[in-house]
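> call design_seq(struct)
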């Protein structure tokens, strides 16, 4: 039996629809762990004064200030939802800033990565223990959706990654997580992040995406997940950075491979697909998203691309990267300008428009 009542099912479907519609609107991902956000701050060169030493309390206050600045700046005409780290949601209590603007707050549900004993270069994600209680607390703090990211290695076929074992583990984890998230009244965003650091070509990346995503929906059905009240956050199909001939692929090739994966593997009952940026530059990530939507917008039946759900963004680095640099340098006004600029570029891309 499903956990959700008709009332909760209606709310899940409405929230999922509002995250990906009207076309163009998408999600801003700000759920980096404290260590990762600190590394992003540390990565910015600040010239004019001597190195400052931060206490733990000082680092925490700095994280809070950055989030506050970003949430005050982010424009609700382009951004439907923001993913918060639990500290930001529960300890800092910042969801009301977003909710007051009509932006839906969400929470990162997944824990940390652990190597798989039989295949130590692949990782399972911790966090299922005690998850229901944590997600209920997140809902009480204002969250209406959650996300869980798994990483999936991807090499050429000869080099053999991902293993079948890791694909089964990731799919099963995401299926269980999605069911628990809906039990807590939160729309689940399942995030299979297929890496592009290795030697796979574009066809291999698409093959791995299609298999991984198909297995995830198989497990989501097993665990009775209400697909209409869920979203998927995949990577674009991309050639690996170690694939020798990667420059031969144009954004239109990436768009075609990615659209094929979505058409084959994502059930039509799912209201939307919100892509991660995965370390691509803001220009490339938005260009790929624009090429994908341009392809879909120009497709007519009987093309399977004519009936795909909303294809939008759930970007972290590609949306806030430039703004964060300005904030670390103390330029608050420019931070706001850049967050608004990139939110608009993302929105245009999700409508199929390439920005200069
Ligand atoms: P990026 O867009 O920076 O990959 O972040 C999205 C995200 O939420 C990763 O889990």
């Amino acid at each position: 039996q499903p956990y959700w009542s008709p009332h909760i099912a209606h709310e899940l479907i409405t929230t999922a629809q509002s995250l990906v519609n009207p076309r163009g609107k998408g999600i801003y991902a700000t759920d980096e762990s404290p260590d990762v956000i600190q590394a992003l701050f540390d990565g910015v060169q600040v010239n004019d004064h001597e190195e400052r030493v931060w206490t733990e309390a000082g680092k925490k206050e700095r994280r809070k200030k950055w989030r506050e600045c970003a949430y005050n700046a982010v424009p609700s005409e382009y951004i439907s939802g923001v993913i918060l780290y639990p500290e930001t949601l529960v300890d800092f209590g910042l969801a009301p800033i977003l909710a007051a603007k009509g932006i839906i707050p969400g929470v990162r549900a997944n824990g940390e990565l652990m190597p798989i004993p039989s295949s130590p270069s692949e990782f399972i994600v911790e966090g299922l223990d005690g998850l229901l209680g944590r997600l209920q607390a997140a809902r009480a703090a204002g969250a209406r959706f959650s996300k869980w990211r798994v990483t999936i290695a991807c090499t050429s076929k000869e080099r053999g990654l991902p293993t079948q074992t890791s694909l089964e583990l990731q799919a099963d984890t995401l299926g269980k997580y999605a069911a628990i998230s809906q039990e807590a009244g939160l729309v689940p965003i399942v995030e299979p992040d297929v890496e592009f650091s290795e030697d796979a070509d574009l066809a291999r990346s698409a093959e791995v995406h299609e298999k991984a995503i198909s297995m995830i929906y198989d497990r989501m059905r097993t665990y009775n997940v209400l697909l209409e009240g869920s979203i998927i956050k995949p990577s674009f199909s991309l050639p690996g950075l170690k694939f020798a001939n990667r420059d031969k692929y144009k954004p239109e090739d990436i768009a075609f491979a990615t659209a094929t994966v979505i058409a084959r593997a994502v059930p039509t009952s799912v209201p939307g697909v919100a892509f991660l940026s995965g370390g691509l530059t803001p220009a490339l990530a938005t260009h790929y998203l624009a090429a994908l939507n341009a392809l879909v917008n120009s497709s007519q039946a009987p093309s399977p691309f004519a009936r795909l759900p909303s294809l939008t963004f759930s970007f972290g680095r590609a949306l806030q990267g430039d703004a964060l640099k300005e904030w670390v340098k103390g330029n608050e006004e420019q931070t706001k300008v850049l967050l608004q600029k990139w939110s608009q570029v993302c929105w245009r891309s999700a409508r199929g428009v390439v920005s200069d």
